[in-house]
C-alpha cells in the first residue's frame, strides 16, 4: 500500500484507486501479447484460405505464395496493434491522441483491405458462390419463361389467321351460291377468295407445325433449370459443381435462343403484308358487259376487305413482335472472394466476424487508454513520495544503505606529501 500520511482523504482514495488499476493492468499484461498473437495467427490462417481460393494454380509455388502472404498479414497485424496498445494509452496531448487515432484508422482500413475480405471469403466463400449460382438460375428462369411467353403469343396468331381464312372461305361459299356478286358459280370472284383462303391455310399449317417444337423446347429448358437448381444445393466442392453448372447454362442459353427463333410473329407480319399486295386477278368470265362490271365491282370490294383483314393481322403480329424480349443472361464463373464482395449484403455475419477478428484489438486499445487516463486522474495532486508503496520504500532504503556501506568501505584518499624545499619561505617583516 502507498504512504498516504501527507494526503487528503480524497487524494488517498485516488492513489489507492490508481494502484488497484495498475495491479489489474500488470496481470492483464502477462497474457495480452499472447492473445494478440493468437488473433493475428487466426487471421493469417483464414487469409491463407482466402488467398488459396484466388489462385488458379495448386502447385508448390502458389502454396508458398499464399503462406508468405498470410504470414506477412499476421506479422503486420501483430506489430501494428502492439504499437497501438503501447503508444496510444501512453500519450497525453490531444494533438498526439488525434494523430495516433488517425494512424489507427488508416491501419484498420489497410488491415480490412489486405486481410478481412479474404477472411470473409474463407468463412462464406462457398455459400457466396452458391448464392451466385442461385441468382443465375433465377435469371435464366426469367429469360426462359419470357421467351416461352413470346413464342406462345406468336402461336396465338394462328387463331387470327384461321379467323381471316374462315372469313374468305365463307365469302367464297356465298359467291358460289350467288349471294355475293349475284352470279352463282365459281367465277373470278370465287377464285380470288379461294386464292387468299388457300394462302392463309398454308400459313396456318406452318404455324401449327411450330407448336410441338415450342412445347418441346420449353420442356427441355425446364429440365436444364431443374438440374441447375440441384447443383446449387448438392454437397461437395462448389468448384466441381460450377463446371457442370456452366455446361447446363450453355445448353439453356441455346434453348432460349431456339425459342426466340421459333416465334412466328415476323412470319405472320410478312404474310399479312403480302396478303393484299400479291393478288392475282383472274380474267373476268361474265358473259355480258354488265356481268363483268358486277364481277369487277365485287372484286374491288373483296380487295378492300382483304386489305382490312391484312392490316388487322399485321397489327396483331406487330404487337407480338413488340413484346419485350427476354433479357440476355450469361453465366460468369466467379471466385469465392469476388462472390463474397458481390453478395456482401447476404453475408453480413460472416463479414462482421472477419472484420472483428482483425479489429478487436482496437477495443483493447481504447480500454487501455481509458484505464491509463483513470490512473493519471487518481494520481493528480499527489507527490511522488506519497505514491510509493511500502515495498518501494523498503527497496529505496535498502539501496541507500548499500550506497552508504560502499562509501564507508572505500579507502581514504592518500595525503599529499610535500617537500620542504617546495615549501615556500615566508619572511616576517617587523614594522619599523
TrEMBL record:
Domain of life: Bacteria
Transmembrane segments: 26-49, 61-84, 96-118, 351-370
Region of interest (Disordered), ranges: 407-432
Keywords assigned by UniProt, alphabetized: Membrane, Transmembrane, Transmembrane helix
Protein name: DUF4407 domain-containing protein
Organism: Sulfitobacter sabulilitoris
Classification of source organism: Bacteria, Pseudomonadati, Pseudomonadota, Alphaproteobacteria, Rhodobacterales
Amino acid at each position: 500500500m502507498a504512504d498516504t500520511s501527507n494526503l487528503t482523504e480524497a487524494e488517498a482514495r485516488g492513489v489507492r484507486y490508481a494502484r488497484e488499476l495498475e495491479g489489474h493492468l500488470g496481470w492483464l499484461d502477462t497474457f495480452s501479447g499472447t492473445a494478440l498473437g493468437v488473433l493475428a495467427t487466426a487471421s493469417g490462417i483464414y487469409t491463407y484460405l482466402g488467398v488459396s481460393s484466388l489462385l488458379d494454380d495448386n502447385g508448390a509455388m502458389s502454396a508458398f505464395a499464399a503462406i508468405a502472404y498470410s504470414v506477412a498479414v499476421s506479422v503486420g497485424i501483430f506489430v501494428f496493434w502492439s504499437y497501438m496498445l503501447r503508444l496510444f494509452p501512453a500519450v497525453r496531448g490531444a494533438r498526439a491522441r488525434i494523430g495516433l487515432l488517425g494512424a489507427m484508422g488508416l491501419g484498420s482500413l489497410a488491415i480490412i483491405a489486405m486481410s478481412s475480405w479474404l477472411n470473409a471469403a474463407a468463412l462464406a466463400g462457398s455459400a457466396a458462390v452458391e448464392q451466385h449460382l442461385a441468382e443465375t438460375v433465377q435469371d435464366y428462369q426469367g429469360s426462359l419463361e419470357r421467351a416461352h411467353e413470346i413464342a406462345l403469343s406468336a402461336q396465338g396468331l394462328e387463331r387470327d389467321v384461321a379467323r381471316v381464312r374462315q372469313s374468305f372461305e365463307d365469302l367464297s361459299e356465298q359467291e358460289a351460291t350467288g349471294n355475293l356478286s349475284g352470279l352463282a358459280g365459281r367465277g373470278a370472284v370465287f377464285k380470288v377468295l379461294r386464292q387468299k383462303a388457300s394462302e392463309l391455310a398454308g400459313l396456318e399449317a406452318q404455324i401449327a407445325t411450330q407448336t410441338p417444337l415450342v412445347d418441346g423446347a420449353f420442356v427441355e429448358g425446364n429440365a436444364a433449370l431443374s438440374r441447375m437448381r440441384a447443383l446449387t444445393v448438392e454437397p461437395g466442392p462448389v468448384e466441381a459443381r460450377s463446371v457442370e453448372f456452366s455446361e447446363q447454362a450453355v445448353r439453356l442459353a441455346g434453348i432460349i435462343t431456339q425459342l426466340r427463333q421459333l416465334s412466328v410473329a415476323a412470319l405472320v407480319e410478312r404474310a399479312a403484308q403480302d396478303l393484299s399486295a400479291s393478288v392475282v386477278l383472274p380474267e373476268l368470265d361474265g358473259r355480258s358487259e354488265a356481268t363483268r362490271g358486277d364481277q369487277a365491282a365485287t372484286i374491288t370490294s373483296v380487295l378492300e376487305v382483304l386489305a382490312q383483314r391484312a392490316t388487322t393481322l399485321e397489327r396483331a403480329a406487330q404487337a407480338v413482335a413488340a413484346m419485350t424480349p427476354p433479357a440476355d443472361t450469361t453465366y460468369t464463373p466467379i471466385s469465392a472472394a469476388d462472390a463474397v464482395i458481390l453478395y456482401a449484403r447476404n453475408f453480413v455475419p460472416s463479414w462482421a466476424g472477419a472484420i472483428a477478428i482483425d479489429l478487436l484489438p482496437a477495443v483493447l486499445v481504447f480500454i487501455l487508454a481509458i484505464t491509463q487516463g483513470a490512473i493519471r486522474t487518481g494520481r493528480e495532486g499527489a507527490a511522488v513520495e506519497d505514491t510509493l508503496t511500502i515495498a518501494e520504500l523498503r527497496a529505496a532504503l535498502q539501496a541507500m544503505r548499500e550506497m552508504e556501506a560502499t562509501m564507508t568501505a572505500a579507502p581514504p584518499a592518500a595525503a599529499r606529501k610535500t617537500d620542504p624545499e617546495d615549501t615556500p619561505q615566508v619572511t616576517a617583516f617587523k614594522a619599523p
